[in-house]
Specification:
- The complex is a heterodimer.
- By secondary structure, chain A is of the alpha+beta class.
- Chain A has helices at 18-37, 43-48, 57-85, 101-124, 131-157; strands at 2-6, 9-17, 94-99.
- Chain A has one domain (23-88, 101-162).
- In chain A, strand 1 (2-6) and strand 2 form a beta hairpin.
- In chain A, helix 1 (18-37) runs antiparallel to helix 3 (57-85), helix 3 packs across helix 4 (101-124) and helix 4 (101-124) runs antiparallel to helix 5 (131-157).
- In chain B, strands 2-1-3 form a 3-stranded antiparallel sheet.
- Helix content of chain B is 56%, strand content 19%.
- Chain B is an alpha+beta fold.
- The chains are: A alpha+beta, B alpha+beta.
- The A-B interface holds A 47-55, 59, 63, 67, 70-71, 74-75, 105, 108-109, 112-113, 115-116, 119, 148, 151-152, 155-156, 158, 160-161, 163 and B 29-33, 35-36, 38-39, 42-43, 49, 52, 76, 79-80, 83-86, 88-92.
């Protein structure tokens, strides 16, 4: 994977191996599913939509009532745009993606949401899980580290004063 | 209608102490990259890099930091934005 600045403009340019693009696309689809279908008591959703008033249940409910819809919409749009940008055409070995500053913001927030979900999922399966779950955790952990690497690389290129 | 009334109330609150009793608090989350938290503080709040890094380190070491203060409506907007960026944030009333 290559992460670089764009010549003559802000934003970032990404070059992904087809395999990396497919993985990212799949993960973006899963984040979208959690936001769309996640059960009310899914702790991962709690990470994405935290309590704004930990000491005031009424205010917390009220805040959630009028912010949840647009927060979920924004996060789903970010995940969907990553999924669409990482679609791999037949026979393609590399996927090149150019993002302007606004689009790059969407990627950064998606990668954050993805890591929050993965961290929650990995934390769940720790006590006496069968081997299959351990393998799943290894996979999730690798995806978590990789998403952090992608985000960190983008942050080295992006200028926060330009958005 | 409600909005007009609220605006009037705010105009009347000329005492800066009264206007700044609400706070936006960002909580430490081991998941988020330090560079990302700094980026959000710089980009969203417009803090200079040094101030953004100072606040990020405060979150990291103390577990939380007040990143803004003002009227309640503005603090709720900030917290909603922080949640949009994946940061753990809450609205809190300052101690009298």
């Amino acid at each position: 994977m290559i992460v670089a600045g764009r010549t003559g403009s802000d934003g970032v340019r990404l070059v992904l191996e087809a395999e990396e693009a497919m993985l990212l696309s799949e993960l973006a689809d899963q984040v979208d599913s959690v936001l769309l279908l996640g059960a009310e008591d899914d702790p991962a959703l709690g990470r994405l939509l935290p309590n704004a008033y930990p000491d005031d249940a009424d205010a917390a409910r009220e805040f959630e009532r009028y912010t949840r819809g647009s927060l979920v919409d924004g996060k789903r749009q970010a995940a969907q745009s990553v999924r669409d940008a990482t679609a791999v055409g037949e026979g393609e070995r590399l996927v090149e993606i150019e993002l302007d500053q606004v689009q790059a913001w969407g990627w950064l927030t998606f990668l954050t949401d993805l890591r929050l979900i993965l961290a929650e999922r990995v934390g769940l399966g720790e006590e006496g899980t069968p081997e299959q779950d351990e393998q799943r955790d290894d996979y999730l952990r690798a995806a978590y580290e990789w998403a952090g690497f992608v985000q960190g690389s983008m942050l080295e290129v992006l200028d926060p004063t330009e958005s | 209608m409600t909005e007009t009334l609220e605006r009037l109330d705010l105009d009347r609150a000329t005492d800066p102490v009264i206007e700044r009793v609400w706070r936006t608090i960002v909580w430490d989350d081991p998941v988020n990259l330090m560079t990302y938290v700094t980026y959000v503080f710089q980009s969203y709040f417009g803090y200079p890099r040094e101030e953004a890094e100072r606040l990020m380190l405060l979150v990291h070491h103390e577990g939380r930091a007040v990143v803004a203060s003002g009227n309640r409506e503005a603090m709720e907007r900030h917290v909603q934005a922080m949640h949009g960026y994946g940061l753990q944030a809450s609205v809190s009333k300052a101690d009298p």
